Amino acid sequence: MNIQLQELTKRFPARGRKAQGEVTAVQDLTFEVPDGMLVGLLGPSGCGKSTTLNMICGLETPTAGKILFGGEDVTNLPPELRGVGMVFQNYALYPHLTVLQNITFPLENLKGAQKLTKAEMRRRALEAAALVQIEELLDRKPKELSGGQQQRVAIARALVKMPKVLLLDEPLSNLDARLRLQTREEICKIQKKTGITTLFVTHDQEEAMSISDRIVVMKDGLLMQEGAPQQVYDNPANLFVAKFLGTPPINVFEGEVRGGRLLLAGQDVLPVPGAPDGSVWCGIRPEGFTPDPAGPVVCGLSRVEVLGRDVSIVCTHPAGTADTLRAIVNARSDVTSADGTVRFALHPDKVFLFDRSTETRIRFGTQG
Amino acid sequence: MQTEFESQRRAASRKAGLRKALTYLGLSVWAVVVLFPFYWMVLTSLKSYGAYNSEHTPQFFTLSPTLENYREAFTAVPLGGYLLNTLIFSLITTAAMVVVSTLAAYAFARLEFRGKNLLFGAFLSLMMIPSELVVITNYVTITNLDLRNTFTGLILPSITSIFYIYLLKESFEQVPDELYRAAKVDGTSDLKYLWKVMIPICRPTIVTVTILKLIECWNSYVWPRLVTDDQAYFLVSNGIQQIREEGFGRENIPAMMAAVVVISVPLVALFLAFRSKIMEGASRGGIKG
Amino acid sequence: MNRNSHKAWLYLLPSLVLLGAFLVYPLIDVLIYSVEEGFNFASQTYLGVGLYNYSYVLHDPYFLQAVENTFVLVIITVPISTGLALLISAGLSSIKPLRKLYQTVYFLPYVTNTLAVGLVFMVLFQKTEYTDGLVNLMLAWFGAGPIDFINGPHWAKMFVLCFYTIWVVMPFKILVLTGALASVNPDYYKAARVDGTSRRRIFFRITLPLISPMIVYLVITGFIGAFKAYSDAVALFGTDLNAAGMNTIVGYVYDMLYGDSGGYPSYASAAAIILFVIVLTITCINLLVTRRQLQR
User: Fold this and answer.
1) Where are the domains of chain A?
2) Which of A355, B153, B255, B275 is the most buried (most CB within 10 A)?
3) Across the strands, what pairs with A303?
4) What is the distance in angstroms between the CA of the first residue and the CA of the last residue of chain A?
């Protein structure tokens, strides 16, 4: 079952003693979570992604707009009638109940025709537990579990009602780095196994990129871009998305386009056919640089960091907006220089131009 | 399907509205139960003696308020004296308590000595001892020292409070160790460090403790009743009991209520001024309850 | 190090002296008093050592009356005040506007002088030759006859005492419970709502277990406090509680020490120790029962 959001808007009354008016948390948000896909809702904290999630699961009512589940309008339905399972950031496992009781809890709420027998509840709970491989933990209390195990219990509890949609709020943020890698694969595996339509919220772009089928990037309550992770990375719609995705982050320069040529600090570095004249932000991915003794981009070499397969060249450029810029190049490239400079040629696919004021993408040549 | 949901939703929101109304109603009922005695005492204190006694059915308001009862309260019985006694007792006891407890709390929080944990454990276990158990001997002690009907006798046993030592110690321990080490490197004495660093940093807790103790002193009844039988040393609680039993004559209820108002006003004022501090302090371990 | 140690003891000296003189010494002394038979306060002499004081107290009808009153008071006020406080706190935490105001109002009894406000309650409940009093006026609205709650039948007096006691202890309980309710992570409620848990079930299956440690704490402190009831009774019925038949155990202790029957510290000590033993026993039973229940 797919999820569609149509021009979803949420405004809160402003908080604080002297506050007046309203704060818009989400503005005209429209996107789709296709059936059976794992979609990452990505953005910096405070961008409205958690509010969006709460509206989808029914904990908050939108100010305007619609939410459709499989084409059916659920905008004003209470959470329990939507058939959603939700995993909270801190898992919200009831501390006084055992793992099994936690998993059974949602089933005990079912009423009327849906009411289950004790044995049936237990069977379903065991099934869910088996799915996330926590069968041996059923009699423990949540505080006796590791973070990763708690996470799995929370997922089992969300899945036990066989929801049509699974929502995860920052599912990995409470785990340490090592567990995070392991757990995100786990989530991905469970999602593939169950084929359940899943939306998860995160501020960590690496996390979102690595497991999502699609990502949706938000900022200040507005949709910035959506698409497959690689596609969004390769084709950012604006400066924000370009900066937000990718580690190490993209290098941003103050550039100028004159007569179809890109100038950085007055230096002609790249032909950009089709781009209109004027000042631009120029973003170059770290992998867009190739060391080339005849290359047009001349940088002051600060240091070289060896990463093994690659090396990271930290250098300076007069047009760079940050103190240093970073290029990731093949470890075999020769970057030694006599005069403390290093020269690069640019890979046109890894160079993005953005309007100086609107920060929207200016496409050139074959980009598009 | 849609309409079914719609009607379900509407029923739910109607139920929520009803629940909210009932909640406010219930809360308001209790608020009235709490406030009504206060209203009644102020109201009664403003009714004249004659008017009050001619009301066979109590009236909920009065059209001719009078302050005569307040004059009566201060002249017919030594209410002013009671207030003064209570003020003296409360201020001295509280001040002594703060000094003594601060010193002890500092020793527990900052200084190292053998048997510290053992002693603190002993302190905490003493907190369990009900005052009823020790009041008997204290009464005998004070009587034997010939301190009945003196402020010394009233104050001395009321000073120590392990609970406040405990609160202050907790607060002192929040102050980072580095500050103490830095002060030591600069050659600051402990007493100066306590006065110049600890107390200013922990002022909120000290204020809380002070106010709680003031309230406790203002309301103390049992101990003063035991060690004073001379009206000149009565505190307000004993005074009010005296008034009740023989003061204005049992019938002059309005004058009695005027005295009650006079006694209650300082506390209520203190409470309104330091509301959050008092509530926060009280929630950590009540005096009453 | 040694110098430091001396200094520490110096800082502790005032507390130690005061605690020693007025808490530790009396604690030992009260045990001694309680076994000294025939102690004469004036001459400070006694006839012998034994348990006669205890036996005297336990056979004193006034003491038995006091024990009965105290137990009735405890059994009525502790559950009612705790339950009512829970109800009010739950109500308070479910509203936003006016919550601060209600909280402030509810806390007022905490800072009032028990004796002084007790007088107001006396006035409200009393029936005199001049007037039936306000409470009787209200009873009359419902067709109930006038009852003298202050000098009338025992059950009526008990009712007023319980009512006033509850009125006095509510602020602390509401304060603690609203704090406990506020400290429950809202995500638990969100999770429960996503699962369609009914309000009643949320309250009984989630909220109540999560705040149960605080409820246990309140019940225990409530028991201890109610067992030590005294000044509320004095405020309502005057210092001669035995005559009113409304004495409490603590009241008995003080009466024995000083008051109408006064001057018997041995009896007072024995009664105080009996009280302490009762309180301790009930607290322990309480703790055991709740621990077993929490484990289940």
Assistant:
1) 3-236, 241-362
2) B255
3) A314
4) 31
Count: domains in chain C: 1
Both structure tokens of A43? 């953005």
On whether any CB of chain B is under 8 Å from the CB of C229, the answer is: no
Interchain contact, C197 vs A105, CB within 8 Å: yes
Residue B289 is predicted with a pLDDT of: 34
What is the CATH number for C191? Answer: 1.10.3720.10
B110-128 tens-digit pLDDT: 888 888 889 998 888 887 7
Distance (Å, whole) CA B216 – CA C112:
10
Phi, psi (rounded to 5 degrees) for C250: -65, -40
> C93-111 burial, b for 16+ CB within 10 Å, e for fewer?
beeeeeeeebbebbbbbbb
Give strand pairing partners of A252.
A283
- Superfamily of domain A3-236 in the CATH hierarchy: P-loop containing nucleotide triphosphate hydrolases (3.40.50.300)
Instruction: Please compute the mean of the pLDDT values over residues C115-132 and round it to a whole number.
Output: 85
| Domain coverage including residue C65 | 33-104+158-295
Percentage helix, strand, coil for chain B under 3-state DSSP, each rounded to 5: 80, 0, 20
**pLDDT value of position A21:** 75
User: In CATH, what number does B77-247 get?
Assistant: 1.10.3720.10
User: Is A95 in Cβ contact with C193 (below 8 Å)?
Assistant: no
Domain ranges for chain B: 2-68, 77-247
Interface contact flag, B8 A81, Cβ < 8 Å: yes
Cis amide bond preceding A248, omega within 30: yes
pLDDT at C295 over 60: no
> Is residue C99 scored above 50 in pLDDT?
yes
| CA angle, A231 then A236 then A240, to 5° | 140
Helix (H) or strand (E) holding B82: helix B79-110
Chain A neighbors (3+ CB pairs < 8 Å) = B, C
pLDDT tens-digit map of C125-155: 888 777 778 888 888 888 877 888 888 889 9
pLDDT for A244 equals: 93
pLDDT of residue B285: 62
Separation between Cα atoms, residue B37 and residue C118, nearest integer Å: 9
| Beta sheet of A165-169, edge-to-edge order | A84-87, A165-169, A197-202, A38-42, A214-219, A222-227
Residue B37 has pLDDT above 70, yes or no: yes
Whether A188 and chain B come into contact, CB under 8 Å, resolves to: no
C-beta of residue A221 within 8 angstroms of C-beta of residue A26 = yes
- Give the Å distances, CA to CA, from B256 to A353, B92, C122, C238: 86, 28, 11, 14
C124:B137 CB<8 A: no
- Alpha-carbon distance of C259 to C238, in angstroms, equals 12
Q: Which pLDDT belongs to residue C42? A: 64
**DSSP labels for B238-272?**
HHHHHIIIIIS-TT-HHHHHHHHHHHHHHHHHHHH
Residue C150 belongs to some domain of the structure: no
Q: Decide if C6 is inside a domain.
A: no
Of A145-159, A341-355, B180-194, C202-216, least confident by mean pLDDT is B180-194
Q: Measured between CB atoms, does C137 come within 8 Å of chain B?
A: yes
The answer to whether position C129 is within a domain reads no
**pLDDT of amino acid B1:** 47
Segment A124-163, tens digit of pLDDT? 999 999 988 888 999 999 999 988 899 899 999 999 988 8
| ipTM for the assembly | 0.88
Q: Alpha helix (H) ranges present in chain A? A: 49-57, 99-108, 118-131, 147-159, 177-194, 205-211, 229-234, 239-244
> Is C271 inside a domain boundary?
yes
